[in-house]
Design brief:
- The protein is built from eight helices and 15 strands.
- By secondary structure, it is of the alpha+beta class.
- It has one domain (about 5-290): q2cbj1_9rhob like domain (Jelly Rolls), CATH 2.60.120.
- Helix 2 (about 20-35) crosses helix 5 (about 95-105).
């Protein structure tokens, strides 16, 4: 198997925001079995193009900050929030109903959305040659051994090994906890998988670097081993990341959105969006000043 399992949404499914029972069953099965599934044709690509133009410009601003940029493990992989304003915050991208249909089927009805950001693989420069991340899990804390959080990734362009498609280790969401990891929670390099475990796993089930077309969504178990890979092209590669937590999971993070989005967000009935609403000026001043990935707390309160 050289690619993860794919479900192709029909035009009708995308328009209605709902997979058929057969496709939903396949998606749920693959998330349980592999820890990841790709849903193609789930997002309007014209909307992605507009957002990508803005986020590529923002990524270059973040990179210009050097050692003070919100990088994850190495400067070639930046944590980058999208602009949380009405012009760019479209439901099919950030609150995709097909994604929520899948996460609700696995986690329970009306999961919580408390995290919305992105990972930008930057083109190499003389100061920042191509580097890969260590293989790691985002669940770098004591966590349940059953599904509790699913990441919804939305690439803004076609992604491939050339522009830094994420290396994924299918099936590693089951059977491994923090005892398999190195680095303390909250450090830049936390969640790294121990080398002997990687070597053993690679012999039986080596990792993949998939090709994923624009318009797709990827649903990934938060526990799955993965690694950001070098972008060897001259173009920035942005991939959004939203996290849906089970309705019973007591994560305390909140989004910060422009207040003009409140009526729209409040009208969403299938997803519990935990957000604070501030003026557009405030949110535009702050959204590029967030932390790096491992500084966020994906754990839950007692």
């Amino acid at each position: 198997m050289t690619q993860p399992a794919v479900v192709s949404a029909s035009f009708t499914e995308r328009t209605q925001g709902k997979l058929s029972e057969q496709n939903l069953q396949k998606a749920v099965r693959q998330v349980h079995h592999d820890g990841l599934v790709v849903i193609q044709n789930a997002v309007d690509t014209d909307l992605l193009d507009k957002l990508n133009h803005r986020m590529v410009s923002d990524a270059l601003v973040l990179r210009s900050r050097g050692k003070d940029s919100p990088f994850n493990y190495n400067p070639g992989n930046l944590q980058q929030d999208p602009p949380p304003v009405k012009e760019f915050f479209h439901r099919s991208i950030f609150l995709n109903p097909i994604a929520t249909q899948i996460t609700s089927a696995i986690l329970g009805p009306c999961p919580k959305l408390t995290f919305c950001s992105g990972n930008s693989a930057m083109p190499p420069t003389p100061e920042s040659p191509p580097q890969r991340q260590p293989v790691h899990s985002d669940a770098d804390f004591m966590h349940p051994d059953h599904p509790f959080a699913l990441v919804v990734n939305v690439p803004l362009v076609d992604i491939s090994p050339a522009n830094g498609s994420t290396e994924i280790w299918l099936g590693t969401h089951n059977g491994f906890g923090i005892e398999a990891q190195e680095g303390a929670h909250g450090e830049r390099a936390s969640g790294r998988i121990q080398t002997p475990l990687l070597e053993e796993r690679a012999r039986s089930k080596p990792p993949l670097q998939p090709q994923i077309p624009k318009g797709s969504i990827v649903v990934r178990d938060l526990r799955l081993w993965h690694a950001g890979m070098p972008n060897t092209t001259p173009e920035v590669r942005v991939m959004l990341a939203m996290i849906h937590f089970a309705p019973w999971y007591r994560n305390q993070m909140r989004l910060e959105l422009a207040e003009e989005l409140k009526p729209f967000v409040d009208s969403i009935g299938d997803l519990d969006v935990r957000a604070d609403f501030v003026s557009e000026g405030e949110v535009l001043e702050r959204y590029l000043n967030r932390g790096f990935g491992n500084s966020y707390d994906f754990g839950q309160s007692p």
